[in-house]
Write a structure and sequence with these properties.
Chains A, B: Pathway: Purine metabolism; guanine degradation; xanthine from guanine: step 1/1. Chains A, B: Its EC number is 3.5.4.3. Chains A, B: One of its GO terms (molecular function) is guanine deaminase activity. 2 copies of one chain form a homodimer. Chain A has helices at residues 50-61, 104-118, 122-138, 152-165, 189-206, 227-240, 252-261, 268-274, 292-301, 309-314, 322-327, 346-367, 385-399, 431-436, 448-458, and strands at 9-21, 24-35, 41-45, 68-72, 77-81, 83-89, 141-147, 168-172, 174-175, 213-215, 218-219, 244-248, 282-286, 304-307, 332-334, 417-421, 464-469, 472-476. Chain A is of the alpha/beta class. The first copy, chain A, has 2 domains: 9-81 and 408-476, Urease, subunit C, domain 1 (Roll); 83-399, Metal-dependent hydrolases (TIM Barrel, Alpha-Beta Barrel). In chain A, strand 2 and strand 3 form a beta hairpin. In chain A, helix 4 packs parallel to helix 5 and helix 12 (346-367) crosses helix 13. The two termini of chain A are 27 Å apart. At the A-B interface, helix 3, helix 12, helix 14 and helix 15 of A face helix 3, helix 12, helix 14 and helix 15 of B.
Chain lengths: 478, 478
Amino acid sequence: MASLKELRNQIFIGTFIHSKKLDELEYLHDTAICVDKTGKIIAIEPQCDQKKAEMSLYPTLGWSAADVAVTIAKDGQFFFPGFIDTHVHAPQYPNVGVFGKSTLLDWLNTYTFPMEASLSDLSKARKVYTRCIRRTLAHGTTTAAYYATIHVPATNLLADLCLSMGQRAFVGRVCMDRMGPDYYLDETADEALAASRASIEHIRGIDPGFALVSPILTPRFAPACSEGALAGLGRLQRETGLPVQTHISENRSEVGLVRELFPRSRHYAAVYDEHGLLGPRTILAHAVHLGDDEADLIAARGAKVAHCPCSNSALTSGEARVRWLLDKGIAVGLGTDMSGGYSPSVLEAARLATLVSNHLAMGGERRGGEDASAPGEGERAKLSFEEVLYLATRGGAEVVGLQDRIGGFRVGMEWDAQLVSLGALGDDVAEDDMQDYGNMDVFGWENWDERVAKWVYTGDDRNTTMVWVRGRLVHERK
Amino acid sequence: MASLKELRNQIFIGTFIHSKKLDELEYLHDTAICVDKTGKIIAIEPQCDQKKAEMSLYPTLGWSAADVAVTIAKDGQFFFPGFIDTHVHAPQYPNVGVFGKSTLLDWLNTYTFPMEASLSDLSKARKVYTRCIRRTLAHGTTTAAYYATIHVPATNLLADLCLSMGQRAFVGRVCMDRMGPDYYLDETADEALAASRASIEHIRGIDPGFALVSPILTPRFAPACSEGALAGLGRLQRETGLPVQTHISENRSEVGLVRELFPRSRHYAAVYDEHGLLGPRTILAHAVHLGDDEADLIAARGAKVAHCPCSNSALTSGEARVRWLLDKGIAVGLGTDMSGGYSPSVLEAARLATLVSNHLAMGGERRGGEDASAPGEGERAKLSFEEVLYLATRGGAEVVGLQDRIGGFRVGMEWDAQLVSLGALGDDVAEDDMQDYGNMDVFGWENWDERVAKWVYTGDDRNTTMVWVRGRLVHERK
């Protein structure tokens, strides 16, 4: 099934930028990175150009120049780690931008369930999933944690397409045996579990080591799962060690619904915990309205959070307190959450993460103290562009449990990367430049920090020129 | 100076969409609009194609087919009124995206004043202004209310460039005789007024009737103007009848500063009112932290508001209560406010206007009652995509005083319009389509409302294929 071509040894030369820590980017100029045929970074050499690499680097690696594919970042270009989308619903892709004034629960019934149900049609699923993967790759998303639908064949198709198109992915068959409409529901907890197992076995068949595509256990969210389904998925997690993804505390009405449905649980996080679904491999999307105790439990279990600022703003869900989560030691990544979120771009999610953090800071002064579950945070709440780029790469890698393999440039990690091109202006402001590099205008007097800030605030997929996953070129902008 | 070529009679055929009222778009399908050589709409004919126009419409207009330039919107394309950017600082364009975690007052000193001061260099000014105009035209901005700098020659150059590049514009020499740094300040109130007069006379010289480019009186904001300067500008307004643009109540520290500097005025709006600067031709940018009395005074005077959601979010200024302003009968348009705002796009401002209104709605429940100047607004605060498109066109036209000439399609109005192309997908999802039409994927099952919603949330300048001002083609996407 996998159509990966045999890779050559590769060298990448130029400027590399990645997160050193939460609030600090590292700039590696005039550097060379060598990637072997398995897509692994095997050397990082400062002060190195092609000539020097051939003379002194290749011999130490046992490479001969003829066998090496060379990619050089030109002036105004840099290599950056691929983005990690820690929360995205592939079947909702056609609804992107369409949500009206709805909030979570009516949005599900009006827009989402009908669209997801329609993907039982495999030809429609192929069209939607192909476009979703192409689009997200074009935005530099090298890893995505996908929700599929309840359908096993369409879920398997999504996994097949990720593998053949070369996107690293976690693909989850959605488990929901209540709350959905009659036409879109697992009939019983047992059938739900059997279907999830079937999809896991399919993925094991196409990518035995889960090197690129992995299954992920996906209870839609607590209100859509019976106790039996949750408990069964908890057992399946213990049995398989697979990751888990679900939603938590996105919207106040949803939190109220969970309180009604699970009256014995002390809060939303406890529901997952009591069913064996809150552990170090669990990705919790949203986490907007958590209480202190709840966040402490999440931290204690080592579960992670997918922050989805576009979606939370669009569906009027709330403002997740990212600084507060990070302060508690919880790993946080970014999610586009299409189609609650209106954009396929993790860069847009990063941009919105700064803006939402600003709204949180603005609200702080008014909010302070009056609501114990949402104390004011003031200026500290604000996330910088450096911090949101961390969340988009290293933070995301931690959320999906791949922090040793992706999210930065280090020997031993894999080459999941994008080549970013800035729209450098010469004195000639030709119309053509403008179209090639989107909205970024670099006038020439900006320092590197300012260039990266411009990318975060004005960049788009036009600045993502090439994208690689495990060393394989998976997107190139013509 | 004006390089307008002689226009031909023109006919535009296809789907036209514009705002009928605040919350309602009108869809005119299979329609023809005739525009005469002066750029004026002289006929709107429903159920009309090219053949029918030639047979039955041209004769009534005295047109012969050979003299008419024809533009037909294809399937997946529609004509939309040009956007009106009611608040934008052209000299700050190179700083777009660069603001760090600053808020208004430190942002001015760190980023803004040094950049503006540097535009005394006319070759730099030419480069920056040319790029700014090209970029905003490419995003469908047919009218812009520009702040220039304190320099007369550079301000005049901006007006020259708007005229030659064909963008409708209000161009204001910035008046500031205090608070700025030594290196960037009008030396006295008298010198400030003389400089503003000089720029007005220049514009009168290049566009005597202000048909395309008009001067606009531009006290930077109250803290940067002495009482003498404000009073002098007030007199100049009475003398000339020219429009006025300034800032109001963007940031809490700024409001405090105004209270200190103008202790006898009862609030910020009163400062402008007392100096004869609050009238029906006044554009007030931001209006975030207004009190009730203040808004009532603004409404009574007929002054207008430029809402700048990107800037207010980026600089942590606050959330302007647009619904509340509209309820008071105040006209509201949108401003990109570059470079407080990070985007040249009014479409982005429209998108953010919906999101900021959602944040206002979210905050409402927490905020209610505790702060008299910012009562909770709840769900009513939320702006729909139809409403923000109204603000971007008809609302903006009212703000700049051109509601009878631009902002919609009506006989007697001028042809300021854009041709929008949706990225319609056939069954073939070719990579090329993706690049041509940006991020918009129309799968084919969307109704027109959903298509327009997708444009608002996922569109960008790649969807703006052609742009006209007063009938003249001023941008075409290759």
